[in-house]
Amino acid sequence: MDLDVFVSAHRAEWERLDILLGRRRRLTGAEADELVALYQRTATHLSLIQSSAPDPQLTGRLSQLVARARSAVTGTRRASWRDVTRFLTRGFPAAVYRSRHWWVPAALLSTVVAALLGWWIGTHPDVQSAIAAPGELRQLTRPGGEYETYYSSHPAASFAAQVWTNNAQAAAVCLVMGVFLGLPVLWILFLNMLNLGVGIGLMSSAGRLDTFLGLVLPHGLLELTAVFVAAGTGLRLGWTVVDPGPRTRRTALAEEGRAAIGMAIGLALVLFVSGAIEGFVTPSGLPTWARIAIGIAAEGAFLTYVFVLGGRAVREGESGDVEAAERSATLPTAA
Q1: What number of CA atoms fall less than 13 Å from residue 29's CA on the CB side?
Q2: What residues have CB less than 8 Å from 41, skipping those under 6 apart?
Q3: Using CA atoms in the order 118, 107, 174, 222, what is the torsion angle rounded to 10 degrees?
Q4: What's the Cα-to-Cα distance from 308 to each of 93, 215, 263, 300, 305, rounded to whole Å?
Q5: Burial of 2 (0-12, 13-18, 19+ CB in 10 A)
Q6: For the residues of 187-216, what is the DSSP string, one character each?
Q7: DSSP H or E stretch at residue 93
Q8: Which end of the chain is more exposed for a tag (fewer CB within 10 A), N or C?
Q9: pLDDT of 163-221, one tens digit each?
Q10: Angle between helices 209-242 and 183-205 (to 10 degrees)
Q11: If we measure between CA atoms, which residue out of 56, 49, 17 comes closest to residue 33?
Q12: Using CA atoms, how far apart are residues 251 and 96, in angstroms rounded to an integer?
């Protein structure tokens, strides 16, 4: 494409569109139709220039013009309770369901890693001695020791808020860092499983594994599931960088990135629930079976929410992305 010739041929249309957008008075019907037609043509021109003869200055100018025109044509729109309801009943569960082929394997493999680390630490005294001195290990694992008092060491409300903040940050890091080919996500997963494996190993070596699981399972089932979902989504985002499929890399990253942002919001709500369980249920005086039952019920409710509501929404065409009207317009480009 000869860029100078192309600009000369279409400059008048761009200037006319700019004039219509600058009108303060209400447009007539004919002018409104003209604005829509010029918006569509200018968007096509921008697409052609980006694919055939990219020029930073011209691309920036037309991008700004198309954005203004799109705002004028589609109008501005405020978020409503309808958007919140749609997100909670369709968007978020659909996004989690779509990424199940990533986070379910991540959950299974991570659990195996944690179990193996726990077995290795629990059966090798030399490894335990490398972790801490014998006196410190006894202080950690004894009845009333640090593993048990950790959950009741602060007021329940402040402890729940602190746990929620820390876990939400970890989940957000997994989602954001996924774009770096998923490598930081694997490291975060390993650190989480290492911490869990150390607890399993040390408490099992002291003959108190049942106590440890009774403290971890009530909140840990839902909490770890949220971390696995975040990690799986981050890994999927990283793979999109490598293989965007039939979409362009920019389009693929935009779509998956928007879904990941929505996922961060939804997972913050899930982690709020697990944080409340950790702050109020785990250190409570309830019997161990009752605390574990609450954790299993919360986990079952989340999985049902994802696989029933999310699966149904995906089958109906939901992708977890924002609604079509809120996305950037995409047009065919020259081959």
Answers
A1: 0
A2: 10, 13
A3: -90
A4: 9, 29, 17, 11, 6
A5: exposed
A6: HHHHHHHHHHHHHHHHHHHTT-HHHHHHHH
A7: helix 92-98
A8: C
A9: 667 777 777 777 777 777 778 888 888 988 998 999 999 999 999 898 889 989 999 89
A10: 170
A11: 17
A12: 20
Residues in the chain: 335
Pull the structure tokens for residue 122: 């629990």
Kind and range of the H or E element at 162?
helix 156-177
Structure tokens at 1: 């494409």
**8 Å CB contact between 269 and 239:** no
pTM for this entry: 0.69
Angle between helices 249-276 and 288-304 (to 10 degrees): 150
Residue 291's closest CA among 153, 114, 151? 151
The one-character DSSP state at 99 is T
Q: What are phi and psi of 328, to 5 degrees?
A: -65, 140
- Could you report how far apart the first and last alpha carbons of the chain are, in Å? 12
